[in-house]
Amino acid sequence: MAATIYGLYDDDAKLLDGVKELREKGVNIKDAYSPFPVHGLDQAMGVKWTRLAMCAFIYGLTGATLALSGFWFFMIQDWPMNIGGKPNFALYENLPAFIPVTFEFTVLCAAHGMALTYFLRNWTLPFVKARNPHPRTTDDHFCLEIVEEENTVSKDDIQGILKKTGTVEIMER
Amino acid sequence: MHKEAAIRKPLILGDKNYHQITEDVCAPVEGKANKLWYLAFTISAIVALWGVGCILYTIGRGIGVWGLNTTVGWAWDITNFVWWVGIGHAGTLISAVLLLFRQKWRMAINRSAEAMTIFAVIMAALFPGIHMGRIWMAYWVLPLPNTFGSLWVNFNSPLLWDVFAISTYFSVSLVFWYIGLIPDFATVRDRAQKAVPKFVYSVLSFGWTGNVKAWIRFEEVSLVLAGLATPLVFSVHSIVSMDFATSVIPGWHTTIFPPYFVAGAIFSGFAMVQTLLLIARKVVSLEAYITRKHIEYMNIIIVITGSMVGIAYLSELFISWYSGVEYEQYAFLNRATGPYWWSYAAMMTCNVITPQLFWFEKIRKSLVMSFILSIFVNIGMWFERFVIIVTSLHRDFIPSNWSMFHPTFVDIGIFVGTIGIFFTLFLLYSRVFPVLALNELKTILKSSGENYKKQD
Q1: How many domains, in total, are found in chain B?
Q2: How many angstroms separate the Cα of A52 from the Cα of each of A15, B176, B449?
Q3: Interatomic CA distance for residues B419 and B421, integer angstroms
Q4: Model confidence at B149, in pLDDT bands (50, 70, 90)?
Q5: B235: nearest CB among A41, A49, A104
Q6: Complex ipTM, two decimals?
Q7: Confidence of residue A75 (pLDDT cuts 50, 70, 90)
Q8: Given B155, B216, B224, which is nearest A114 (Cβ)?
């Protein structure tokens, strides 16, 4: 059975050095676990940036469209009302009064759509079991996950680099 | 590694490392509450129960049990509503606007400020709800096709805009807060020894692992939500102010209202954050994280927004004179010298004069003075809304309709009760939730921690 090697660091600077060293030697790192976002780690590991912001934009656009078509239907088409001597004739004429709710609904859809996408993509949902390899990776330790099978570099060499860059513990599972 | 100028004061005091931050922030969650907490909780819970009683009495008997009359149809209820919404503005301002400006000092206070926002908005939303009289019909504010013919809600009305503004603000703030909480719940989960807390916190933490991609997404979501929440903060109180500004009541019908309300909201919100945090940092012993410097920064925001509010009051007075409209002129003269002059005086003193003391460095840095002056602002901002609402209404268009507003015990009970409910929720929160964004704090330890600053 292929082993997964876990290298545990106690400092984010050491972790970054370790990642750089491993990548230079051509080691394929599967993942890294940290208690907080370590800046520069994504570049060091070569992880692609997320496209969540684009999702938020699309959700927002959907919200704005829904709101405006709703106003057209409720206020202009289905039951036009004359309120305070201000009749509802056409959407563009009434638009100023609809701006606040359009804005609110855009934000509502963008924010909640993005949050839901975030939860699903991370697979962080109620009753999901946590998969972090060591309980202290949510406290003050940083962990690299390397799958032996995905690498051409031998297990001993990987462990050698991990030791050299200052890991406090190396686990194998 | 990001470096910071040496003359900048450290934001985390003492000899801390990553683990120490976890220990310090998790201590109140894992440990037992002290006597002070039980005392505060008991008092708040009793007050809250009295408030709930008064609310139920109102729902049972109708709003005739309040002191409203045909002339003053909005009084304490809407005053309280606007006051609580205003208080609810600081949390999202701290977490969203200060995030966009990359202000590191926000990290020690954003969690509690957001919690305060959420509890304050719940208290605020209560008032329009019970003011409807028939709260079980509250769903009529939603655009639902009804069985009486397809008559829809009126989207031209600021009151309906308010429904959307408040519900969007509440739900987005809640999600923003919870997304930030998940990694910290995971920390508590991984430290938990007993089965029940472990289970509870593992459910609350949504199975957070903290891998690279999750953190990238976390940062992106925080940034985009901050970008969305920033205009939201400004829009919510603008829309609340339009409840008044789009009407034809002298004293309400002013274009200055939206910016003036937003400045006032930030002003009162920061004052309430100050009040709560000055207590909280002592009760849960987090003085090393919520430092004198944090208090000073908040005082600076209070003095700036307080001055904006002061300028708004003066421009209102000037414009009412300059307009040449005698009804408008009378409305403002009546505010200052009429039967409610004392509320106008209280507003001016607490909002315009006393916060100016924060220009003195000694006062700005004094914890006792900060606490006293923050209470002053809380009182002053309540009176501001009372002045706007009641003194504008009590002089009706026909002098024979002129009247006064006298609160009944129910009015008072509900207002005091909401303060009780608010504090009950906040005290519960301070025992169950990590009160600081502990994992985010770790990102600034090496640039803003006292011991790291000394090493440079």
Answers
A1: 1
A2: 26, 15, 32
A3: 6
A4: low
A5: A104
A6: 0.91
A7: confident
A8: B224
> Which CA distances in Å does B151 have to A68, A159, B280?
18, 71, 49
Is B379 within the bounds of a domain? yes
Q: What is the pTM of this model?
A: 0.91
Q: How many CA atoms lie within 13 A of A110 on its CB side?
A: 27
Contact criterion met (CB < 8 Å) for B225 and A132: no
- Output the domain CATH number for residue B267: 1.20.1630.10
Statement to judge: residues A56 and A117 lie in one domain: yes
Report the relative pairing of strands A86-87 and A82-83 from DSSP bridges.
antiparallel
pLDDT digits (tens, 9 = 90+) for B164-215: 999 999 999 999 999 999 999 999 888 888 888 889 998 998 989 888 889 9
Q: In this complex, which of B19, B158, B219 lies closest to A140 when CB atoms are compared?
A: B19
Residue B253, domain extent: 18-141+153-455
What tens digit of pLDDT does each residue of B340-352 get? 999 999 999 999 9
Give me the CATH number covering residue A140: 3.30.70
Q: Do A34 and B215 touch (CB under 8 A)?
A: yes
Neighboring chain B residues of A38 at a CB cutoff of 8 Å: 215
The kind and range of the H/E element at B385 are helix B367-386
| pLDDT above 60 (res A1) | no
Name the residue range of residue A165's domain: 4-49+131-172
What residue type is assigned to position B286 of the chain? L
Residue contacts between A and B (CB atoms, under 8 Å) = 203
A39 and A64 part of one domain: no
> Looking at CA atoms only, how far is residue B203 from chain A in angstroms?
5
pLDDT for the residue numbered B417:
95
Whether residues A107 and B228 touch (CB distance < 8 A) is answered with yes
Residues A161, A137: one domain?
yes
Q: Answer whether B328's CB lies under 8 Å from B250's CB.
A: yes
Q: Could you report the per-residue pLDDT of B299-317, keeping only the tens digit for each?
A: 999 999 999 999 999 999 9
pLDDT computed for residue B89 by the predictor: 86
Indicate left, alpha or beta for B62 from its phi (over 0: left) and psi (-120 to 50: alpha). left
- Looking at the fold, whether A11 and A24 belong to one and the same domain comes out as yes
Residue matched to tokens 């900060």: B370
- Same domain flag for A113 and A78: yes
Whether A130 sits inside 8 A of B207 (CB atoms) is yes
Q: Which of A6, A108, A124 to mutate to test the interface with B (most CBs of B within 10 A)?
A: A124
* Residue B123 near residue B422 (C-beta atoms within 8 A): yes
* Gap from A38 CA to chain B (nearest CA, Å): 7
| Tens digit of each residue's pLDDT (9 = 90 or more) over A19-58 | 888 888 888 888 889 888 888 888 888 888 889 899 999 9
How many residues in chain B?
456
Residue B427 counted as domain residue: yes
Q: Which of B2, B205, B224 is closest, CB to CB, to A52? A: B224
The answer to whether residue B147 sits within a structural domain is no
Q: Report which residue type is found at A97.
A: A
Structurally, chain A folds into a number of domains equal to 2
Would residue B412 count as lying in a domain?
Answer: yes
Structure tokens at A151: 């690498």
Q: What pLDDT is recorded for position B119?
A: 94
| Of B214 and B10, more confident | B214
Strands of the sheet with A31-33, listed across from one edge: A31-33, A142-147, A4-9, A169-172
More confident residue, A152 or B344: B344
